[in-house]
């Protein structure tokens, strides 16, 4: 991609109306643009990041047998009345059309997926089943001031699973937890993300969250440094000890964290109102047990930025960077242009995504923008490098540039490094 043609120019200064680090950097670097509080447009760079995260999630959920579908965002009031949630879900956007008919904008999709699942579930032979989608959710978030972390409209991966009994449900729940670990490792926040016990609502002892430790987090968690799991502050008073190893509450460390994903036992909360049952081997009707599992894509994007940035800008982990290589040309001399163009072609041929700064701008501006945009590898071609027959290579995360001769060899090495493995097939 030629940077001179890229829609989403960098801004000289951070936006004044954003407080959170993720929004300040993502807006200034041209990844997203705010339409109103909690609602953002994803510009070409931002969409590339979102798509990379989406693909990582898709690969890992497919490995555990999830089947992707796409449900509507516009829901009839009746679906939400069936579960009593038309009245009780505070953050539901409700609208009425000119004929007087009421709708909700999907805040979550249990009300849609459960009756849909009835289409194919009648016998124990139809179970287990796992269905998921990537969908825009709408929620009346009144405290939308954390950039991409809390949107009124945001992309979610939501997975729903259907089972004959607790045992089968528990086994699948564990598989999803493992898939989530892989997802957060691959998106570069794994080391800071902890498995957290959270409220299971009125019908289940626990749910679990994946919480990423950062001061930007809205949640307070109690981390057990002995076993590495945490307890959400919302339920700490009911716990007293680490639910994993029994250490007393006073030994747990209080941390701020962002909930990037969660997994939730639904038991029969939704199968009952929708009469989602199956016939067991004796031909008797039994309720289907369900689980639901969410990951917010925008929230993951914002979390990555909160965790991986410095004072110059974003430092993308390779697997989610919009481009792998930032080729920065610091001269308009015809010979330099020729060499840089040829290099651009070569790196593209190697199968790496390259952003090529071919703009008519000063070296200072170009290098500053490269740091702000934050691609993992910066490759500088200048009068000096061409004269010396070398290239200048700098990893975004490291403070020093290296002079290299065999650039293709270096890039090839790097390519192996970014091709991280995905989970094993079942
Ligand atoms: P929170 O407690 O932060 O409001 P939640 O419990 O409402 O989250 P869920 O309804 O379970 O979250 O949604 C599943 C996932 O969707 C969350 O783990 C999070 O990653 C993401 N998510 C939830 N609300 C938002 C939001 N307003 N903006 C962006 N992502 C969100
Ligand atoms: Mg919420």
UniProtKB/TrEMBL annotation:
Transmembrane annotation, as ranges: none
Protein EC: 6.1.1.15
Domain Aminoacyl-transfer RNA synthetases class-II family profile: 33-322
A GO cellular component annotation in the UniProt record: cytosol
Annotated InterPro entries: aa-tRNA-synt_IIb (IPR002314), aa-tRNA-synth_II (IPR006195), aa-tRNA-synth_II/BPL/LPL (IPR045864), Anticodon-bd (IPR004154), Anticodon-bd_dom_sf (IPR036621), Pro-tRNA-ligase_IIa (IPR002316), Pro-tRNA_synthetase (IPR050062), ProRS_anticodon_short (IPR044140)
EC supergroup of this enzyme: ligase
Catalytic activity: tRNA(Pro) + L-proline + ATP = L-prolyl-tRNA(Pro) + AMP + diphosphate
Keyword entries, A-Z: Aminoacyl-tRNA synthetase, ATP-binding, Ligase, Nucleotide-binding, Protein biosynthesis
GO biological-process terms attached to the record: prolyl-tRNA aminoacylation
Record-level Gene Ontology MF annotations: ATP binding; proline-tRNA ligase activity
Protein name per Swiss-Prot or TrEMBL: Proline--tRNA ligase
